[in-house]
Amino acid sequence: xxxxxxxxxxxxxxxxxxxxxxxxxxxxxxxxxxxxxxxxxxxxxxxxxxxxxxxxxxxxxxxxxxxxxxxxxxxxxxxxxxxxxxxxxxxxxxxxxxxxxxxxxxxxxxxxxxxxxxxxxxxxxxxxxxxxxxxxxxxxxxxxxxxxxxxxxxxxxxxxxxxxxxxxxxxxxxxxxxxxxxxxxxxxxxxxxxxxxxxxxxxxxxxxxxxxxxxxxxxxxxxxxxxxxxxxxxxxxxxxxxxxxxxxxxxxxxxxxxxxxxxxxxxxxxxxxxxxxxxxxxxxxxxxxxxxxxxxxxxxxxxxxxxxxxxxxxxxxxxxx
Length: 321
Ligand code: ADP
Ligand code: F6P
Fold this sequence. Notes:
alpha/beta; Rossmann fold; 2 domains; 7-stranded mixed sheet; 11 helices; 11 strands; elongated
């Protein structure tokens, strides 16, 4: 039996491109003759029954907006079986038999539980962290990296004038991809990520040597999962006569207009989710790997860890002299 009516929600930490994904789900569903609903505030809205029908115009003028018009929430109650049953019941009583969940790894756990409640479920990777396996990129990551690169470009100007070192703390609790991609793209001298242990003696020695050979600025990008930028700066100060400045980019990385890459990723995945539901599929996490759309069992994705791109990491080290 195929779905007739579906819902969409955004959950967990927001990310740029979530709106483009919502737009894609809604417009694709309507194109295919389905009814489509929005759930406000993630799993919380499922439990409180904050669900409304959507039409073509309700997703107008949002493809370029950061944040999520559906808002997002962290909902403890949905972690209980009673919460999950209540959420599924609220969908069923409206005749909704399929749902698209847009969020990070925590939201994927919720999506898995929802599918166990008999709701046909598709999960889309919405997080700036790029920490979801079985997809090359998550929705929001490209925009977040662009923001960090832009910030480092600016820092570089003033660091060069003063011949200083700069420590830039970026987001990524368990995944160093924002630090890695932004560090490579902005010519950082060191990238500190949770996936690779760092040796501050070696980093400090290299930075000193580079300054002696005429380098006029130094940038260390540190993922928050490694530690605080202030602590890294202190470790550097203890080993050199540098007087580094620390910048914590924080939630700036999660806002602003999504890049075209994130809009396209979101648009492709939203449409694919609707087509998978129409085909009778459920319990899948969708992604794009080497340009191809992929559908992987959610539980397999939850149980896996995204492989770290050691090739890019080594390249950064080779180039940053
Ligand atoms: P993200 O999706 O960005 O990783 P969270 O980890 O905060 O964000 O998860 C978002 C929400 O997903 C949680 O607030 C909760 O409602 C739901 N969730 C997380 N883990 C589970 C779980 N094990 N079972 C059911 N729901 C969960
Ligand atoms: O969206 C993921 C993430 O940005 C992490 O990198 C970060 O640690 C976390 O969210 C912070 O989110 P919040 O302040 O909303 O708890």
